Amino acid sequence: MACSWLNSCLLLLCTLLAVVVSGSKRNLPIIAFDEGYTQLFGDDNLVIRRDGNTVHLSLDERTGSGFVSHDLYLHGYFSASIKLPADYTAGVVIAFYMSNGDIFEKNHDEIDFEFLGNIRGKDWRIQTNIYGNGSTSVGREERYGLWFDPSNDFHQYSILWTDSQIVFYVDNVPIRKIERTVSMGLEFPSKPMSLYATIWDGSDWATNGGKYRVNYKYAPYVTEFSDLVLHGCAVDPMNQSSKCDTTHSSQAIPTGITTSQRIKMESFRRKHMTYSYCYDRSRYKTPSPECVPIPQEGKRLKSFDPLTFGGGRRHRGKHHHQSHSSNVEGSSM
Ligand SMILES: *[C@@H]1O[C@H](CO)[C@@H](O)[C@H](O)[C@H]1NC(C)=O
Ligand SMILES: *[C@@H]1O[C@H](CO)[C@@H](O)[C@H](O)[C@H]1NC(C)=O
């Protein structure tokens, strides 16, 4: 019968699809939550799903929530599939980042993915940033829109950190590469860091510079983390011994950017970048030495926000350096 033929074709198609979908993840050394992480705060606002690989973090009137890796890592590849809360999310911040701030209070390092919520009908934005050796007076933020709605489904966000470069990826597309330059010195993160994931109330800055705050009428705000990857050298800061994950070396883990990926990255940045510290003349009279201006990028940012990126009139002598990336969310939504 035609219908049974159709059924077996559908079944075959589904099987093929399932193979393709899991194939891209099969090679990743995914670990269960309990194997690699521990709760940081938020009591029962952190929920581990039954499969042990998916974690829900929520924010309500009482608290946000978060988790942290058991180990500190010196270099590696760190990744998670993340689904963000939908609808009205202004003021909500979800951070997926590496830091050693609890060990090195004065000279900490940090590598950040920050997701900034928005009012209904406006898209989430992503911010990336790094600090090294406590360089919080120099924020190296970039912000972008995305080519999909990150609250519809899980998407993979990854950080590659080596001694010479840091690459941020979204669904395996590199969106930013930071190369270690001589002028950066220790401002390039170079000490072991833990991996963190948190959701919290960033009302004072996250959306339109604090104009739109978290509205707890829409709480709880729930984000889901899955496919957690910690692939690197775990370092014991007490005795400096390190334990590298070499058993899981696989093709799914990038070691750098290929030519075709570089083309994708440049295309992403031309289309989706909405802020870069390298072009922000209202914060930095002269760009950091590692900034290599690309005329197309600068021109596009200027068309968004001539005041910030134009390099025109400034309020002289009234310039305050910001102490944390968190404070620099601009007026562009
Ligand atoms: C790192 O930070 C410490 C503490 O602020 C400072 O004393 C030191 O000079 C910095 N080192 C470098 C190489 O920048
Ligand atoms: C040093 O670190 C290793 C690996 O983390 C650990 O197994 C060992 O017990 C540590 N030794 C001491 C003396 O702390």
From TrEMBL:
Active site per UniProt: 110 (proton donor), 114 (proton donor)
MF term (GO), any: hydrolase activity, hydrolyzing O-glycosyl compounds
Signal peptide: 1-23
Coiled coil: none
Domain GH16: 23-225
Annotated localization: Secreted, Cell wall; Secreted, Extracellular space, Apoplast
Gene3D superfamilies, sorted: 2.60.120.200
CDD domains: GH16_XET (cd02176)
GO cellular component annotations of the record: apoplast
Biological process annotations from GO: cell wall biogenesis; cell wall organization; xyloglucan metabolic process
Record keywords, A-Z: Apoplast, Cell wall, Cell wall biogenesis/degradation, Disulfide bond, Glycosidase, Hydrolase, Secreted, Signal, Transferase
Main location class: secreted
EC top class, as a word: transferase
PANTHER family listed in its UniProt record: XYLOGLUCAN ENDOTRANSGLUCOSYLASE/HYDROLASE PROTEIN 8-RELATED
Similarity comment text for this entry: Belongs to the glycosyl hydrolase 16 family.
Function: Catalyzes xyloglucan endohydrolysis (XEH) and/or endotransglycosylation (XET). Cleaves and religates xyloglucan polymers, an essential constituent of the primary cell wall, and thereby participates in cell wall construction of growing tissues.
Name assigned to this protein: Xyloglucan endotransglucosylase/hydrolase
